[in-house]
Amino acid sequence: MTTLMVQIDGTTVPLTTCFWVRRTADGCAEGSLHGEYAATPEQAHKEFVPRQRDRDRDQKAGYTHELVTREQWDATVMACLLGKCEHRQATTEDGAAR
Ligand SMILES: [Zn+2]
């Protein structure tokens, strides 16, 4: 089996070392998949959300599915999945303060 190569931000990397990230409209990562599970954002969306009706709703809500490198994952996804990112802190702080 040949290794599928993908380009992210001008760098060519094997798809197997990448991750698909599902983000809400405000950019908060909600989940991630290993790169080899999908070849396109549409396929990744199907992996995250099997039902067409739910995917239609996601599109309206502004969810995105993006391929990132391991480094980008560490920098932008991990904090979200741990609930420690700036997106969630913004909501929690607002909720706690008022
Ligand atoms: Zn986040």
Task: Write structural notes for this entry.
- The protein is of the alpha+beta class.
- The chain has one domain.
- The protein has 5 helices and 5 strands, in the order ββββααβααα.
- The mean pLDDT is 91.
- The protein binds zinc ion.
Bound molecules: zinc ion
Largest sheet composition: 3 strands, antiparallel
The helix/strand order is EEEEHHEHHH
Total tally of structural domains: 1
Tell me, what's the shape? globular
Strand order of the largest sheet: 4-3-5
CA radius of gyration is: 15 Å
Helix share bin? 40-55%
Count up the helices.
5
Query: Which percent range describes the beta-strand content?
Result: 15-25%
Alpha carbon gap, first and last residue: 56 Å
Low-confidence stretches: none
Task: Provide the structure class.
Answer: alpha+beta
Compute the average pLDDT: 91
List the helices and strands and how they pair.
Layout: E1 5-8, E2 11-14, E3 19-23, E4 29-34, H1 41-48, H2 52-61, E5 64-68, H3 70-76, H4 78-81, H5 86-97
Antiparallel strand pairs: 1-2, 3-4, 3-5
The structure holds zinc ion.
Q: What are the salient characteristics of this protein?
A:
98 residues; alpha+beta; 3-stranded antiparallel sheet; two-stranded antiparallel ribbon; 5 helices; binds zinc ion
Short description:
Helix content is 42%, strand content 24%. The chain is an alpha+beta fold and 98 residues long.
